[in-house]
Amino acid sequence: EAQVTQNPRYLITVTGKKLTVTCSQNMNHEYMSWYRQDPGLGLRQIYYSMNVEVTDKGDVPEGYKVSRKEKRNFPLILESPSPNQTSLYFCASSFNRGTHGYTFGSGTRLTVV
Amino acid sequence: DAKTTQPNSMESNEEEPVHLPCNHSTISGTDYIHWYRQLPSQGPEYVIHGLTSNVNNRMASLAIAEDRKSSTLILHRATLRDAAVYYCILLETSGSRLTFGEGTQLTVNP
């Protein structure tokens, strides 16, 4: 089944403890991105990647890192999480941005205390 | 990015067709029109997209105005599972992001 898989689905952590949210897709998509969703603010893009070793900032990149060493994986790294990063996170992938639809993962609900 | 305007909410009855409008008067010639929906506690789900011509797939139809300044997502027979927030988004071929607006909350009555 074609899908974007995120792990974990739920995570509670403490301020300052580094964490990684994994994202993997099995559709050979070139384009991958991360979004966060907050009440009243909607979905906002954090980082995106147009191919292996090619990443760029989205609208709200502060406090996050990403890497794209393999085509299928695009992990989101929080080096020193803070409570304002408590949010619902989604990973998405697409074969070719505008001309193809995006597939989203099921989400990761992160709570930083 | 060109903006879209959608009604905040719409209501429909089960088994009836639903027409969800979207205005995008500043659309450029290279912008694709994408529609996504998001059910509670789930990730956004791709519904349909098009450029100039009307499009049909197993989920819905997309009717695009001749001047491309508006479009309509058509659910032919609404079911309770279609209750969701529907987002209309413009995306360039070379665009780097889906910019989500507030969308339309669709309520489907039994």
Would you write up a description of this structure?
The complex is a heterodimer of chains A (113) and B (110). With 113 residues, chain A is an all-beta fold. Chain A is built from no helices and eleven strands. Chain A has strands spanning 4-7, 10-13, 19-25, 31-38, 42-51, 54-57, 65-66, 76-78, 87-94, 103-104, 108-112. In chain A, strands 2, 4, 5, 6, 9, 10 and 11 form a seven-stranded mixed beta sheet that branches. In chain A, strand 4 and strand 5 form a beta hairpin. The model of chain A has no long low-confidence stretch (mean pLDDT 94). Chain B is mostly beta strands and 110 residues long. Chain B is built from no helices and nine strands. In chain B, strand 3 and strand 4 (45-50) form a beta hairpin. Chain B is globular and about 40 Å long. Chain B starts with 8 loop residues before the first strand and ends with a strand. The model of chain B has no long low-confidence stretch (mean pLDDT 92). The chains are: A mainly beta (113), B mainly beta (110). Chains A and B meet through strand 5 and strand 10 of A and strand 3 and strand 4 of B.
